[in-house]
Design brief:
It is built from 23 helices and no strands. With 508 residues, it is mainly α. Among the domains are: 29 residues, no CATH class; 129 residues, Alpha Horseshoe (Serine Threonine Protein Phosphatase 5, Tetratricopeptide repeat), CATH 1.25.40.
Length: 508
């Protein structure tokens, strides 16, 4: 063993003196060996050398085998992934001492990095919020999972990544899945899905398809109401509003998206009729708006739908007053909703210059509208315009004679009386718009004030008071410029130009 160590010291990199010194020290420490001992030592060294050689050969033989190393366990992979996603390096960089040193070295880059991190963090928070607030909202959870999935895709290709072909594909698929799942076609969810499809068609400018979807839904709703009312006349519905042979209405099935642990609001036939009839009125008003659109311009169809909506509203009110409210029938449309239907029909008559028909509708809508609201001021303005533009003939002696011959005939208002009434309503509109304060006040109030001032200028010009007309137009022009209301600016400037071109103003 000592001899082997001495041999190990002799390497090509060592110098000669160091080797000789090692030999001398070994010779002093080792005693002389006999020939027998030398033979035994030589034998041991030979055996040890052969064993080492065998081991080296075995290791080389294993290396020669080209075997792939085993894959690391899943635990190590997860640990490496967790370390790669760790925020410790970023947090450590933003410690007090590190942050100060970074700011001293490169302040601009540090500020830019902080802003970028804040933007990324805000975007991530918004994405998570949008996902849970929109795609996991109640409008999806009410449907079975497969229908909700199709509806999410339809809305995604409608709003986030517009693709009309894919959006239409998934809308149709969702409707087909609703039919296959046996959902009630007159439930709020299924009717809402069809209304959403019509709204999407309108959004992309396909007004014809939007009208077709709403027309089909309106006809189905009218047919259901007609069959239900016939069942009442035939005595097939009892006093509790249920079909004969059933003790109570069946609750929604689990496939309809209802939670079995939550109480479900079941409705009888009268409650369902109220809900469907109210939606039918809203759909009919929307169809009147679509038919009046500049891309469609079917005024007669618009008028038919709006007249039906108003007549249905008034007939239902009259029925409830005569027959009373049925069991669990629920409330009818709110006053604001009824006023909206009346206003829509009044605007239709206004567009056809049938002011004598529009005025009573606006007056009725005002009575149903909240007293302190900007929209009430708009209705007052509309009423003032209708009264001022009614083509009433001047009251003459011949009309007095005809009134004497027919004492029961309706008294026709004079032109001056109509203008006075129009001026009164325009002043009411201005005061109402100015009186609205707080959260109820919107830009509509300021625009209504500007329009009311223009209307007062027009009414004064019709009455021959050019001085007041000029004052009102200038006030409207100033207000319209202050709020950047382009239609008001145009209307006021045109009014001033008419006054300048009139003979009476030149005479003054």
């Amino acid at each position: 063993m000592s001899a082997s160590r001495a041999v190990a010291i002799i390497t090509p990199g060592n110098n000669l003196q160091h080797v000789r010194y090692a030999h001398k020290r070994l010779s002093r420490q080792l005693a002389p060996l006999s020939p027998a001992q030398i033979g035994r030592a030589t034998t041991r060294s030979h055996i040890a050398y052969s064993i080492q050689q065998t081991r080296l050969q075995s290791s080389n033989s294993h290396e020669s085998d080209k075997q792939k190393p085993p894959l690391p366990p899943l635990r190590l992979l997860l640990r490496a992934l967790r370390q790669s996603l760790s925020l410790r390096p970023i947090i450590g960089a933003f410690r007090d001492q590190s942050l100060r040193s970074l700011f001293r070295q490169s302040p601009e880059e540090l500020v830019l990095a902080i802003i970028l991190l804040c933007v990324i963090f805000g975007a991530c928070v918004y994405v998570v919020y949008a996902y849970f607030n929109y795609f996991q909202s109640e409008q999806f959870t009410k449907f079975p999972p497969e229908i909700a999935k199709s509806l999410r895709r339809a809305l995604y290709y409608s709003n986030y990544s517009p693709d009309p072909k894919l959006a239409l594909k998934y809308y149709r698929l969702a409707l087909e899945q609703c039919s296959k799942a046996g959902l009630d076609p007159f439930s709020d969810e299924v009717m809402g899905l069809r209304i959403q499809l019509a709204a999407w068609f309108e959004k992309i400018g396909s007004y014809k398809n939007s009208i077709q979807v709403l027309e089909a839904l309106l006809q189905d709703s009218k047919q259901w109401v007609k069959v239900m009312e016939k069942s009442v006349r035939d005595g097939l519905i009892d006093k509790s509003g249920n079909l004969l042979g059933t003790s109570k209405p069946q609750p929604p099935t689990k496939e309809a998206g209802s939670d079995p642990e939550m109480p479900t609001n079941v409705e009888n036939m009268w409650a369902k009729r109220t809900r469907i009839l109210g939606k039918s009125v809203g759909i009919s008003v929307k169809l009147g708006e679509l038919y009046s659109n500049e891309h469609v311009l079917q005024s007669n169809s618009a008028g038919d739908h709006l007249v039906w909506a108003v007549e249905t509203v008034l007939k239902e009110l009259q029925r409830r007053q005569t027959e009373g409210v049925k069991v669990d029938e629920g409330d009818w449309m709110t006053p604001e909703q009824i006023g909206g239907a009346l206003e829509a029909l009044g605007n239709h008559y206004e567009s056809k210059s049938q002011h004598y028909l529009a005025a009573p509708l606006f007056l009725q809508a005002i009575s149903l509208s909240p007293p302190n609201s900007c929209h009430t001021a708009v209705l007052m303005n509309n009423l003032a315009t209708s009264l001022a533009q009614q083509p009433v003939e001047t009251w003459s002696e011949s009309s007095e004679v005809s009134q004497a011959k027919e004492p029961n005939a309706a008294v026709r208002p004079t032109r001056s009386a109509l203008l006075a009434s129009a001026r009164s309503w325009a002043l009411h509109a201005q005061k109402t718009a100015e009186k609205v304060q707080g959260e109820d006040r919107t830009i509509e109030c300021d625009e209504t004030c500007a329009v009311a001032l223009c209307n007062l200028g027009d009414i004064a010009a019709m009455s021959g008071d050019t001085k007041e007309a000029s004052l009102r137009f200038k006030e409207s022009l100033s207000l319209s410029r202050r709020i950047s209301f382009e239609p008001g600016i145009q209307q006021a400037e045109e009014g001033l130009q008419r006054l300048a071109a009139s003979p009476s103003s030149r005479a003054i």
